[in-house]
Each structure stands twice: as structure tokens, then as C-alpha cells.
UniProtKB/TrEMBL annotation:
Record-stated family: Belongs to the oxygen-dependent FAD-linked oxidoreductase family.
Record-linked InterPro entries: BBE, FAD-bd_PCMH, Oxid_FAD_bind_N
GO biological process terms on file: cannabinoid biosynthetic process
Natural source organism: Carya illinoinensis (Pecan)
Low complexity biased stretches: 1-20
Name of the molecule in the record: FAD-binding PCMH-type domain-containing protein
Cofactor(s) essential for the protein: FAD
Domain FAD-binding PCMH-type: 68-244
Amino acid sequence: MIVSAWSSPSTAASTNSSSSSHDRSFQQCFSSGFQHSYNSTSGSLIFSKNNSAYASLLKSSVRNLRFFNSSEPQFIISPFHESHVQAAVICSKKHGMQVRVRSGGHDYEGLSYVSDVVPFIIIDLFNLRSISIDVENESAWVESGATLGELYYKIAEKSNAYGFPAGSCPTVGVGGHLSGGGFGTLFRKYGLAADNVMDAKIVDADGKLLDRKSMGEDLFWAIRGGGGSSFGVILAWKIRLVSVPPGVTIFNVQKTLEQGATEHLHKWQAIAIVGVANEPSNGGSKTIQISFVSLFLGPAERLLLLMKVSFPELALERNNCIEMSWIQSPLQSFSKAKSDYVKESISKAGLEGLWQRLMEEQTSLLILTPYGGKMSDISDSETPFPHRITWDSDNETQQHIGWMRSLYAHMEPYVSKDLDLGQNDNNNASYAQASTWGLKYFKNNFKRLVRVKTVVDPSNFFRNEQSIPVFPSPQ
């Protein structure tokens, strides 16, 4: 266990006479609980609803505007040191407040900053974003509040021979990404981001600060794909850097239905990323345009030779290819919003039905990301991550949501759903209730996750609408 000394600095939160005694009691508990001296010039640590910066901080990383005016936390904690997180956990538990933990805010169901059960607080890890690169040992320590873009930039500053197999969106927070598994453009070569985690620091439900050795291998297994918010507040990760060549090649070849896109996609499903959108054709009527996108770890000449053998139908040409360094490649990628896992290749009939539904929407975008490669070499039990695939749409109105549900109904034979699998009532489901979605989502890993949860957080303090439950107490 990592040990530090206690001290009692003040915070910069504002209060007034209308604050409840319960709120004041929580603030007093928090202010007296730091294990690290605090310099108030760094900024505020705790923001109440009376603080002028509260609203802007709350909305600073809300990525889904559907939740922009949702339930508000009693306090937002913005820690500068691990002991601030320990104090937040201890005091929240003492005063009956739920905890939501936010790194980048890219969870599109809002689980890191929205709660139907009040009172609750948000621990926003924005200020915990330090990154230390150790090229000699091919590793790095990165705090959970850092973004993927910041991590990639720091790696590239040290060396152009290394990268990390995580996502392509630069504003995604490291904390949520790694604890959920984390896939990106290098995962067919090196596996998930979670497969390349070597150590971690976590604050558990008792406020203890643990590393891999002190937390044990079961908890270390669980937080690499099982969702860290079910088990504690993950502060930092030690990751394994992976080798990348000096130059990589990307291409984006677009084909319409009239150009044989369905036949191409049917074969392409097991090869690389593809984006699907409805677009106006030359005649003005709608058609489906498919973008065949790829990142190749090497020069364009080698890629062209391989494509002539493996996929000559695509007719890839040199002018379709762009060579660049690996650090430049994430800037060429898509964003994503809602995800499913395709269980087997979609049939041509399934694809044609999909095109019909995409054409019904004014604008739509779908992204297919095939697993395989290194992913297939890693056993299902190595990490808890439920291998999934990504569909994309950023529409927010009920009309568009209805269209998405119709689309998902068509795709149901081919995919396993996301939150629609089920969720916990009142954020505190029984094992039996949570099993209805947990066994589908995590498959054989679900019961092991529940065993870990029952040991490390038996009171189910860390919970949300789709968190891991605990086993019922023996009667």
C-alpha cells in the first residue's frame, strides 16, 4: 500500500448561510481529510452549487447534450493530489453520497456525471493528468485525467519509434478508456489498451490507495475492461509502449452501391475499418457511400502489394494512400457515439436491409471496426472486456433516436446491444437482476467480476446504472 501523511489545509469552495448543515458537514470532513499539503493558489478543490465556477465546470466535458441539463451533483471535487480523492471517497461514504468519476466525459450514457439517485458528487480528474514516459523501459505512467491526445503527444516527444494501442479520438480521457478495455487503430497488432496495462493506482471504497501488488491480481484483472467505476477511483496507469515504424500509411477509398459497395463490404468486414453514410448521388437521389479506411504500419508500396493479393477488387491506387508518422494518424480517424458487437459476418441480405434504413434518415453515419489479429490471440478471460463493434450517430432528437432504434431492431440478429441490454434499478440492482444484462455483456467473465466486487466493495458503494453488483449475503 502507498502511504502518505495527513494534514489539514483549507479549500476554496464558497458557502453561504443557506447551505445545509449536511453540506457543511461534508465540506468540513473533506477539508480536514487531506494527506498532502495543499497550495490554494493551484485553484479550488471543491465546488458547491453556490460557486460561480460550478456550472461551467459541470458542463465542461459533457459530450452528450441530452444530459446537459440533467441532475446536478451536490459537489464537484477537482483533486490535485491522490489524497484529495481519498478524502472525497471517505467523506462521501460517511455522509451517504454517491460518487461519479469523470475523466474525459466520453461515456455517451452520461454515467460519469449524471445520477438519478441524489445526493451525489462528481470527482472530476481533470487536474490529475501528468504523464511520465520511460523509453528505455518501454513504459509510461499516465494519470487518468489525461487525454489520449496528450498521451500520444508525450510519447512522440520522446521517440517516434513508440506508440500505444488506444483510441483515435484525442479528447477521450485515459481513465475511462483503459478501464473499459480501449480499442483503436493498433489493436489488431497489439490488442486492447487494457491488454497493455502493467500496473495501476486505485482508491478503493475504504479510501485506501493501492497499486497492483497491494490490490492483488483479481482486482487488477477486473479494472482492465470491467469498468473501473465499479471498483474504485483509478488514479493512474502504467502502460506498455509498443513499437511503430517511422512511417505509416492510411487510405480512404469510397464506393457507392452502384460501384459494388455491398460486395466489397461483405468481404471487407474482417479486414479493417469502414464508414457508411447516406449521400446524394450524381443524379440528386440518395445512395449509400461506403468509405474503406485503413491504417497500415509501413510504407505505401508494401501496402499496395498486399492489397493486390488480398483485396484486388477494391482497386487501391497509390494516390489513395497518404504516408505520415504514427502520431499524425489519429487526426485522420472518425468519432463514435453508440456501440454494438457483431457476432458474425453480416449477410448480404442484412447489409441491404441496413442500407434501406440508413436511407430513411436525412444524415447518418455508421462505423464498422473489425476485431481480429492480436485480438484473436488473447483469450476471453485474459481481461473482462466484452469484444464489441462500433456504430455511430450524433443525432439527439427523439425522431432520430427512434430511427436509431429501428436500425438497431434490424441489426439485432447480428449484434449484442449496449445499455439496452438492461440496467440496474436505482443504481443498486440485485445479482439476479444485473445478471440479465451482465451475463450477455461480459459472458463468462461476469461471475468473476461479481466475486471481485463482493470482496473489494461488499457494501456496493461504487455503483451506477450498469455497474457490477455484489453477491447476496448468505442467509
